[in-house]
Design brief:
heterodimer, A: mainly alpha, MetI-like fold, two-stranded antiparallel ribbon, 78% helix, B: Rossmann fold, 2 domains, 8 helices, 20 strands
Chain lengths: 288, 352
């Protein structure tokens, strides 16, 4: 009798349980990605389509053309801005959530999750109604003579920042909330007992111990921003382009699949680097 | 005035009373244990002294100063937590420095204090370790070193030994007592473990449902319990309910079960109450001994160095007797007919 059969819980069961998921991932994710990776190294000619010849032209074009490089930096900067916004707004919210108990926590939790309960398109149209030149915000401000001319909130970075910040905030809040809840409450009492005031407790105990949650929240928000498509397309329109809009444009409008694939892969690698770096940051803290 | 004084301390949560009528004076250098079952209010009392729980009423005085309204971080009272509460992201040294920094002790002096407390608890070579790299006993020592570095006015322990295994616990009892004596700090030690309280404390405060049941030295608490709760909670006691009544020449104690006991402590008043006798105070005697009580051994149990016998008296009362295993003392068997007695001074009369 083979050994894996006599000790099913040791070697067979985990694979059997992982199997379906693994198969799905392999077929529907790793497979297409490999195909896409291959295409990104192919050529393209208008009218002919994909030319099956290995080359680095697509990557060269992306990294050396100032237009595309500008979009790369613009996208990364947007990611950093949305992340910073979510962190600044999210930490106090997570702090309040982690302290709340019972019904108060349930209500707060629901409110924080609200943005995720609406479809992206509907939510984005909602923001357009609010942010437009004749939108609710400008209309109200003009009416009360708080501003002379409408603020530019749509078709630029500001609008995308606001709309993406709103939908990605829950990821930041929930990550930090989990980390804060993991802190043993007696540590706060111990710190107070040792003579520390609130500010010292916050900067020496609360903040460092919630760092794993801050890091994972930042990774989630940053990758969420980079891969967002509907919101930047609808709110920024043609004026402010990000990588996902360029990928769509290249692949769907211009049918230049190789170039689109190359941009997509650049984005994937950027996210991967960030992910590994943040993982190492939290791992080192844990093993230190 | 005493070093630490608690006056009419009271804490209520809504309608439930956690602590009430708590009056206690502790002298400088004393080691006092707060002993009681869970929910008796011992931890609440400790947390009131540390400043984490505001008392409903009453006062807390430390070294002649009223600290009742003082916030926790300004009390200079060191608390050792049950789970040690070491900061997991800081080394042993950083854990100790945390309090010194909060008190703005200059770095040269802080360095000196860290070194000396680590030497005191025997962990000088561990200052760069993180708490998770230490054993339970070592973490305990760091927690102790961390509060001792601040030279606290008062040291508070919240069941600090309950997370350690049995052998280490006994070892740490002596260790904590040695350190407390060496430093000369006044200490309050909360525990539900009577053996811990007995072996460590100068004085024990027994708590029962938020009130002080008795305050006294370990010997007083054990030999002279003042309430049935104390006699029952500390060690084992045999209880006989009934009332004394005068008989020819001397008084007798007549139990509700009908049993008549001729051995009475001198202080027994005329009112109804409980007679309490410790199992090891009872001895087996021959049939002709005066006032001895006849019975049958229903159970004989090994307790290691001691035998425990469960004896059923003629009246149906059951009595537990502990007898040391010694040379020439034969172990008795179940079913054996015996007579038991005790010295009048070894029984205690308690008002019920």
């Amino acid at each position: 009798m083979p050994s894996w059969f006599s000790k099913p819980h040791r070697s067979f069961a985990p694979w059997a349980l992982l199997g379906p998921n693994l198969l799905l991932l392999l077929l529907c994710m790793a497979g297409p990605l490999l195909l896409l990776a291959r295409i990104s190294f192919m050529g393209y000619e208008a009218g002919h389509g994909i030319i099956p010849a290995w080359q680095l032209a697509n990557y060269k074009k992306f990294f050396f053309d100032p237009f595309y490089r500008g979009i790369l930096w613009g996208t990364l900067l947007l990611g950093a801005e949305v992340t910073a916004l979510c962190l600044v707004l999210g930490f106090p919210l997570a702090y309040a959530l982690s302290r709340a108990r019972g019904l108060k926590r349930a209500v707060l939790f629901f409110c924080i999750l609200m943005p995720l309960l609406t479809s992206t398109v509907v939510r984005t149209f909602g923001w357009m109604i609010l942010l437009g030149n004749n939108g609710f915000i400008n209309h109200t401000l003009l009416r009360f003579h708080l501003i002379a001319a409408p603020l530019r909130l749509m078709y630029n970075v500001t609008g995308v920042l606001i709309a993406l910040g709103e939908v990605l905030l829950p990821f930041m809040v929930l990550s930090i909330d989990t980390a804060l809840l993991n802190i043993n409450p007696s540590l706060y009492e111990a710190a107070r007992n040792l003579g520390a005031r609130d500010t010292r407790i916050f900067f020496r105990i609360t903040l460092p111990l919630s760092l794993p949650g801050i890091v994972s929240g930042c990774v989630l928000v940053f990758t969420g921003t980079l891969s967002a498509f509907v919101t930047p397309t609808l709110i920024a329109g043609a004026r402010f382009k990000v990588m996902s809009t360029i990928i769509y444009q290249q692949a769907m409008a211009l049918l230049d699949w190789p170039f689109g694939a190359a941009i997509a892969f650049t984005m994937l690698i950027a996210i991967l680097i960030l992910f590994v770096a943040s993982l190492r940051l939290t791992e080192r803290r844990r093993s230190a | 005035m005493a070093y630490l004084t608690l006056r009419k301390l009271k804490k209520t949560y809504g309608a439930t009373v956690a602590v009430e009528d708590f009056d206690l004076s502790v002298e400088a250098g004393e080691f006092v244990a707060l002993l009681g079952p869970s929910g008796c209010g011992k931890t609440t009392t400790l947390r009131m002294i540390a400043g984490f729980v505001p008392p409903t009423s009453g006062e807390i005085w430390i070294r002649g100063a009223d600290v009742t309204a003082l916030p926790a971080h300004r009390r200079n009272v060191g608390l050792v937590f049950q789970n040690y509460a070491l900061f997991p992201h800081m080394t042993v040294r950083a854990n100790i420095e945390f309090g010194l920094n909060a008190h703005h002790v200059d770095s040269a002096q802080a360095d000196e204090r860290v070194r000396s407390v680590l030497a005191l608890v025997g962990l000088s070579s561990h200052e760069d370790r993180f708490p998770r790299e230490l054993s339970g006993g070592q973490q305990q020592r760091v927690a102790l070193a961390r509060v001792l570095a601040l030279k606290p006015d008062l040291l508070l322990f919240d069941e600090p030994l309950s997370n350690l295994d049995a052998k280490l616990r006994v070892q740490m009892r002596q260790e904590i007592r040695r350190l407390q004596r060496e430093v000369g700090v006044t200490a309050l030690f909360v525990t539900h473990d009577q053996e811990e309280a007995m072996t460590m404390a100068d004085r024990i405060v027994v708590l029962d449902r938020g009130r002080i049941a008795q305050v006294g030295s370990p010997a007083e608490i054990y030999d002279r319990p003042q309430t049935r709760f104390v006699a029952d909670f500390i060690g084992i006691s045999n209880f006989f309910e009934g009332a004394p009544f005068p008989a020819a020449g001397r008084s007798l104690f007549r139990c509700t079960s009908g049993l008549e006991i001729g051995i009475l402590p001198e202080n027994a008043p005329g009112a109804a109450g409980v007679l309490a006798v410790r199992p090891e105070k009872i001895e087996f005697v021959s049939a002709d001994a005066p006032h001895s009580l006849p019975g049958i051994i229903r159970q004989a149990m090994q307790l290691g160095s001691t035998m425990e016998y469960l004896i059923e008296l003629g009246s149906g009362d059951r009595v537990i007797v502990h007898e040391q295993k010694r040379p020439r003392v034969t172990i008795r068997q179940t079913g054996e007919q015996v007579r038991i007695t005790w010295h009048p001074a070894d029984s205690v009369f308690l008002q019920s």
